[in-house]
Amino acid sequence: MLKPLEGSWCLILGASSGIGRAIALGLADEGVNVAGVHFDTAARAEEVESLVGGLRARGVETHFRNANAAARATRERLVAELAELTGAAGGIRILVHSLAFGTLVPFLPREGRPKPIAARQLEMTLDVMANSLVYWTQDLLAAGLLRTGSKVYAMTSAGTSQHLPSYGAVSAAKTALESHVRQLACELATSGIAVNALRAGTTDTPALRRIPEHAGYLERAAENNPHGRLTRPEDVAEAVALLSRSESSWLTGNTIGVDGAELHAAAGAWG
Fold first, then answer.
1. Architecture of the CATH domain 9-259
2. With a threshold of 0.90, does the pTM exceed it?
3. Can you tell me the distance from the alpha carbon of 249 to that of 259, in angstroms, rounded to the nearest whole number?
């Protein structure tokens, strides 16, 4: 039986671990060919190679590049490659922005952290985790790779309305990211392209474990979720596949919770 997404292409920015990795595998199970950008050291080469092998074992074409997805040179090079790879197959059906690289330096000095955040750190976090969505969308659209029926997803978090002592720069970037999603949805509506932010519930990923306060946060989040567990990367991958099967662009400009009602149950629990 033909799957609705079979033979199409996705581009995942931040494809090698956590939620990006799960989305790559989940879409490959739907027959989607996977182009992925990741930024890893040699220490993770074997793990990434295993992921690529797992994707190809599912019978899909796989094209991974280890590069800084927020760099202009990376976009220029990869958009040209993607035009050759995907142009005849309908371009990029699904774009996933899952970049989790930002500073966790607090805004102000405190015990153990005498140096406050620097301008370059704040600007880098905003550029990587928010502005790069706009730049990729611009370049893919200009190359004719985002077409009617394409879906754009950006991974956001509850950090836009909650706080942790080290999360200020990332929180600001995620807030900007959601604003970018709404604006892109507005401007792409007449092209039939849907743009949404996905707000995963608390998910135990390598990115989250870099947050100094992660241990207590994970424990509280699991207690607050009616399902009695944290969100899993596979929960988000399933949502991406489900939302992508339709050609409609009417569901657009939203921040969609994929959290098992965690945030509803925890309402008022955070300052």
1. 3-Layer(aba) Sandwich (3.40)
2. yes
3. 23
Q: What ranges make up the beta strands (E) of the chain?
A: 9-13, 33-38, 62-66, 92-97, 151-156, 194-200, 255-258
Q: Which amino acid is at 234?
A: E
Spatial neighbors of 265 by CB under 8 A, at least 6 apart, are: 224, 225, 226
In the chain, where the domains are located: 9-259
Beta sheet of 194-200, edge-to-edge order: 62-66, 33-38, 9-13, 92-97, 151-156, 194-200, 255-258
Partnered with residue 257 across adjacent β-strands are 199
pLDDT in tens, 162-212: 777 888 999 999 999 999 999 999 999 999 999 999 999 888 777 777 777
Contact 165, 118 (CB under 8 A): no
| pLDDT score of 269 more than 60 | no
Q: What is the DSSP letter of 62?
A: E
Cα 253 off chain centre by: 16
Tokens of 253: 């400009």
Going by C-alpha positions, the residue among 40, 86, 78 that lies closest to residue 61 is: 86
